[in-house]
Design brief:
By secondary structure, this protein is of the alpha+beta class. It has one domain: Roll (Nuclear Transport Factor 2, Chain: A). A four-stranded antiparallel sheet has the order 1-2-3-4, covered by helices on one side. Strand 3 and strand 4 form a beta hairpin.
């Protein structure tokens, strides 16, 4: 498989979709598809991701990295780095094959 020439568009669209799942005040809507990540009744998370970098990989996958800020409940804002490898499936969509999340505590 060759490099994906739409790597930046796919990566940017993925990040917008992924983090929008967390920035919803309605508990039911916020937890749809992400219920394993936090206690929906006790936690409210917002993400402010600014720089997003995307690079194509030789097998058609896309490396996506985000640097941003995370706010949970009344806790102070913390910076984070989040990296994904998006791998193409047979239908032309992508799935997360690898992921690294690093919370930067000061």
């Amino acid at each position: 498989m060759a490099y994906n020439t739409n790597f930046d568009q796919v990566g940017q669209a993925f990040i917008a979709h992924y983090y929008s799942k967390f920035d919803v005040p309605d508990v039911a809507a916020r937890t749809a598809g992400l219920t394993d990540l936090y206690d929906a009744d006790l936690s409210f998370m917002t993400f402010e991701g600014t720089p997003t970098d995307c690079q194509p990989l030789p097998d058609g996958s896309i490396l996506v990295t985000v640097i941003g800020q995370l706010k949970t409940d009344d806790d102070p804002v913390n910076s984070f780095n989040h990296c994904f490898v998006l791998k193409p499936n047979t239908t032309g969509s992508f799935y997360i094959s690898n992921e690294i999340f690093r919370l930067i505590l000061h």
